[in-house]
Amino acid sequence: MSSGEFIVSLDIGTSKVRVIVAEVTEESTQIVGVGSAVAKGTKKGAIIDIDQAIQSIREAVDHAERMVGFDITKVYVGVSGNHVSLQSSHGVVAVSSENREIGTQDIERVMQAARVVALPPERAIIEVVPKQFVVDGLSDIQDPYGMIGVRLEVDAIIVTGSKTIIHNMLRCVEKASLSVAGIILLPIAASELCLSMDEKNMGVVMADIGGGATSLAMFQQGHLAATSVLPIGGDYITNDIAIGLRAQTETAEKLKRKYGVAMVKEASNDIVFQVPTIGSNKEQEVNQEELAMIIEPRVEEMFHLIREQVVSLGFPAEPAGGYVLTGGVTSIPHILGVAQDQLGSAVRIVSPKYIGVQDPSFTSGVGMIHYIQKRWMLRMVKENSQSQSSQKKKRGPSTLERVKSWFSEFI
Questions:
Q1: Out of 3.40.30.10, 3.30.450.40, 3.30.450.20, 3.30.420.40, which CATH number does the structure's domain 228-349 have?
Q2: Half-sphere exposure at residue 124, Cβ-oriented, CA atoms within 13 angstroms
Q3: 5-82+164-197+353-376 — its CATH code?
Q4: Residue 1 has pLDDT above 80, yes or no
Q5: Which of 99, 139, 274, 357 could form a Cys-Cys staple with 283, CB 3.0–4.6 A?
Q6: CA dihedral 181, 185, 189, 195 (to 10 degrees)
Q7: Which ranges carry the SHS2 domain (predicted)?
Q8: Are residues 126 and 161 in contact, defined by beta-carbon separation less than 8 angstroms?
Q9: Model confidence pLDDT, tens digit, residues 24-37
């Protein structure tokens, strides 16, 4: 792995398709290429037009390929949406080694045992997330590797989704001349980048506010407790601007990005711009304050709906760990002030800190890279340890290939 291996994440959003290429070495993870395209053929996290969706995926991949200079053939696909549900599971195995030392194979076997659950025919397993391991009755173990025991158990969360939605998404990826290395639940991946363990333990809500939808993930006692998707996002702000100023949607989007602020009191009357009016050859003169008067009510409504959804799912309106916001909409200036007015003072905004991807709209894609890299590093350390203890040199597939194989079991 000294020369590095490449991980590619594919995030098929409601408004954008994003591809991120990262080079992983023993020392670091480096983002080396990104690509994006307007999402076509998707609605509320589901594929509604396969041909258009394939075209959007290819455009995003082509964009990334031009940056990195090689062909992308294998990707990890992110999944989210209201079709996703969580359920608890339990797995038990006997430790297989003669000296009763728990190894990676034992952990893999107990995770496979946790997957054996009865599911309706229309559901498919996306991911199995361990909550705790139990070794001979000793609970609250996060990583049992290297421990001595006879009986290994795991309490896990089974993440399932609609088989139709998942298979259609994977079919689009494969028809775009790509193979699927694995599928990953986006809220879990994004939490690797956005949330601290203290926040997860206290109870926190993560909101990824995109163009066409807002994904919510609630964490309690260190684990994902619920997910939800609201059909609100930056496109709704753009539509309000287009209606309020009688402008084309493309013009409204440009105005939002260039002049938009989320709070009227932070806007300026001195910043004036010309807006072409639909149905007229004349342009109207608009200032930033007038634009903010359109944006602020919609942003307030978005945060009000987020708060209502959190309460409806049985969680406190102001969780102890607060709210963590990310996604493209959070780049609107002064949106944090509106969020604090609606959600409480414990609100912060997270954005990736990489050259080329300092845009919060890439949080989910970068989170997937972190999520995979974290598991690669854990396996690398464990396999190196096993190799040293046995005084034998490992042969066969690389550690990253083993992680790819592990992820592919859930497809």
A1: 3.30.420.40
A2: 17
A3: 3.30.420.40
A4: no
A5: 274
A6: -170
A7: 7-194
A8: yes
A9: 877 777 888 999 99
